[in-house]
Amino acid sequence: MKCRVCRGPAVIDLRRHNANFCPEHFLDFTRKQVEKAIDEFDMFGPDDRLLVAVSGGKDSLAIWDLLLDLGYAADGLYIGLGIGDYSDDSGRHTRAFAESRQATLIEIDLRDEHGFDIPTAATVTRRVPCSSCGLSKRHLFDRAAVEGGYDAVVTGHNLDDEAAVLYGNVLTWQADYLGRQRPVLPEANGFPRKVKPLVRLTEREMAAYCVIRGIEYQIDECPMALGNKHIAYKEALNLIEEQSPGSKFTFYHGFLARAAERFDGASGDDDSTPVGLGTCERCGRPSSNDVCAFCALSERVSGHDPVPVELVRNKR
Ligand code: Q46
Ligand code: ZN
Ligand code: ZN
């Protein structure tokens, strides 16, 4: 197996590109794909200040690394979710990376700063953990970006993630979600711009990137993700990709090019709260109620004793 560029020994084969690469040229390929996505979707400019939502997993550490290498001013934000050993390890990987790159890392610990963690929130609300987790992350990332004067929040969603979400939304024809499934969500109504520069790269490519760059990351899945439908959608798409390399890319990017605009205006998510609906009386963030969903959650669950992660898993 030889590198397409230098004919040296290749370490990865990319069937959808009909190409093999050596480590050096694979890194070049990855950077070019990120630059292409930034450019194609007009994500941000060279002088923008970026806040990377870092989880300690391969994708968010890789995009942070790539943006720093490409010369962007990119700080990281890590939220301690209190999901047992999983969160402890994720935090360690994130701190080690930030230190190795001498990058600025902002940390928010849910329990220290807001009096609750995700296993406890899931138990008290009797809802799946990802519901309070997603709500908390969105709120805290938005708030930190706006208060810190950042131009955009960067997330590490890759092609597999976006194709799986699209697959799920198409299966159930969720017009409102389809209307929001873009690699760029513009700044609006007190919410920061959100961008996904990894939409041209797969999960496997990001894992290879981290290995080649020597980035240590959280390998385990979140223990609360069990039963998450997106994992099944990813597996289904992987079967199709195996038979027909490039299908995932065509599915997602074909949607963006040919179908996404048909769902414009169908969105009703909280990020598109209509102008003039007011602000949360606790935190001052945009909200259609007197108290925003995050402050309401935190009020409801913060007085409870911490629930260990194992108890939440056993109940599912
Ligand atoms: S961290 Fe949180 Fe994910 Fe774990 S509880 Fe669900 S949403 S699965 S990205
Ligand atoms: Zn090469
Ligand atoms: Zn609030």
Description of the structure:
The protein has 316 residues and is an alpha/beta fold. The chain has one domain: 3-Layer(aba) Sandwich (Rossmann fold). The chain contains 13 helices and eight strands. The protein has helices spanning 23-40, 58-69, 84-101, 110-114, 118-125, 129-147, 159-171, 175-178, 203-213, 229-243, 247-258, 293-301, 309-315, and strands spanning 12-14, 19-21, 49-54, 73-80, 105-109, 152-154, 184-185, 193-195. The strands form two sheets. It has a six-stranded mixed β-sheet with strand order 5-4-3-6-8-7, sandwiched between helices. A two-stranded antiparallel sheet has the order 1-2. The longest helix has 19 residues, at 129-147. It is globular, with a radius of gyration of 20 Å. Mean pLDDT is 94; it is low at 269-273. The structure holds Fe4 H S5 and zinc ion (2 copies).
**Major sheet: size, sense and barrel closure?**
6 strands, mixed
Strand order of the largest sheet: 5-4-3-6-8-7
Helix count, per DSSP?
13
Oligomer, anyone?
A: single chain
Mean pLDDT: 94
Uncertain segments are 269-273
CATH class: Alpha Beta
Total E-strand runs = 8
Q: What is the domain total for the residues? A: 1
| CATH-level-4 superfamily name | HUPs
**Rg over C-alpha atoms, rounded to the nearest angstrom:** 20 Å
Named at the architecture level, the CATH assignment is 3-Layer(aba) Sandwich
User: What percent of residues are in strands?
Assistant: 5-15%
- Give the topology string: H per helix, E per strand: EEHEHEHEHHHEHHEEHHHHH
Small ligands present: Fe4 H S5, zinc ion
